[in-house]
Structure formats: C-alpha cells, structure tokens
Amino acid sequence: MNVPTLPKVELHLHLEGAAPPAFIRGLAREKKMDLSGLFSENGAYRYKDFWDFLKVYEAATSTLQRPEDYHRLVLAVLEESAASGVVYSETFLSPDFCGGRDLGAWREYLHAMREAADQAERQFGITLRGVVTCIRHFGPEKARQTARCAAETAGDWIVGFGIAGDEKVGQPKDFRWSFDLAREAGLRLTAHAGEWGGPDSVRAALNDLEVERIGHGVRAIEDLALVDELAERGVVLEVCPGSNVALGLYPTFRDHPIGTMFDRGVKVTISTDDPPFFHTTMAREYEELHRAFDWDEGVFEKIARASLDAAFCDDDTKSKIRAKLETVDA
Ligand code: ADE
Ligand code: ZN
Asked: Phi-psi category of 130—alpha, beta or left, where left has phi over 0 and alpha has psi -120 to 50?
C-alpha cells in the first residue's frame, strides 16, 4: 500500500491549527512579536494539555492579522495536505480570528482565502471548502455574531457551520439560536462533542443542535447503545485519532475506539484536527491505523467514499472528487 498516493478526503481540519510552526514564527518575526514561549527547543508547538493547547493556538493565531496572512496560510496548509494525498478538505474557519466577527472584514478575509484555494487547486490538485465555526468558550453572544457572518456568506464555498473550543464550557443548547440561523441559511451542521464530554455530550449535540456530523464523538464508546444508535441513524463521526492520542484521551492508536466503532457500523471518517500540534499528517494517520487495526487499502477506500458522501459541498464538486477517488493506482 502506497499511503501518500491513496486519495483522501478530510472533513475536520482547523485552518489556524494547521499552520506550520515555522510559518507562525515567520509572521511573528515580520510583525516583531515575541512568541518564543509557544515553541519548544526543536521548534514544535509546546503545550501541557488541551486547555493549554487552546491558549497556545490562540496566541499563535494572533500573528494572523490581515487577509494576506490568511492567503499565505491557506496555500501553506493545502500544500501540506496535498502532499499527504488529500484531494478534498473541509476546513473550519473562524470569523472570530478573521476580522473579529465584523461582516465586512470577514468578507475580505474570505475573498483572500478563496483566491488562495483556487490557486492551490490549480497547483496541487486539492479542493477546499469552508465550515464557519464558532468557539464555545467565547460564549453564545459571539457565536450569534459568527453565525450571522456564516449565514450572510453561505453558498457554494461556505458550506457548513459548526462549533469548536472548550467542550467543558456551557451546553450545546446555549448555541441553538446560532445553529438555527445557520440551518435556515442552507448550511449543513456539525459540532465538536464527545471529545472532552462523555456520551451525553454527543446526545446533546444531536438533539439540541440537530447536527448531522459530530466532531470527534469518540467518547460515545462509553455507551454501546449510543454507538449502535449512531450506526443506525447514519451519524457521521469526524474522528481524529492522532489528535486524541496526542492529547492523552487514549494511550495509543491501538486503544483508540475507531476500530470498534467501524466494526459496529458507525460511519467513521479520518482527519488530523490540528496536524502540526499533534505531530501528524493524513498519511501518518493512515499508517498508524494500518498498524493498529490492520486496515488495508479496501478499508481506506471505503472510508474515503463515505467521507465524500458526508461532505457538505454540492453534487458537482462531489462528482469531480469521486472521479479522483476512483482512479487509484496504488
Ligand atoms: N479547536 C482546535 N482544535 C480543537 C479540538 N481538538 N477540540 C476543540 N476545539 C478545537
Ligand atoms: Zn477539532
């Protein structure tokens, strides 16, 4: 199996979280910002746990201050993803970081990101679509402003709405208004749940926000009735095994519940979340899953097809990507 050449579909990637540390250091240097405390001696991002990770993430993101910075970021991130064989990427974008939730500013950032995505598509053969994401620990009022930005720019490129951030803060139902607005604007919905919260957090996201996909969702494994319900209802999980291992949810890939969930018929997909923070790439996720569960090319092809089916983009885009999945020469 030639892992890098297997065509992959990634549904769960935070754009700022995918910024290579050297890229952020370069921006900090240009802007004369001292962010040396964010990095370890070998140049990697340094954090103690998930909550510290969120702080480092936000501090690194403070170097991204203009639409041109996001243009460069999109190119850098898509080049990396394409090198791992990703042909379609759905990426979380945050108006919180792109112009402070001001609609006019958000449109300018979006324009820059789309231009970079078009360039990357021509150069690297990877297609990008955006899922606007509010941030849970910033609270419901900011989420409403974010949802308005999402609703106003919904279309063939901004295709979804979601929520990330600290799952221990607030409840999904606090964000219902924002999710209703996004749904009414035609956006498809996903929510981070079942990463730092247990099975009840997955139920709450499904029942209170009516999302069709769950970001992570892995802790549903603590309630097998819920796992079977996810399988029956066809709920798609955006699973990020390397992220969960790096953040200490599971000690190794072998201990990760994705194997059991797949065997029980849950629609699992594979993503990297914030790859440089977790020392991973899509190619590495595949290699580790192959080692842990003996998954072969047939399993990965099945997962890539299911991922594309669960993507939020339009049918024309899906047909174009499907053709790429079918021409495997590994
Ligand atoms: N933001 C970036 N990565 C995240 C994660 N793994 N969980 C919640 N919020 C995030
Ligand atoms: Zn995430």
From this structure: beta
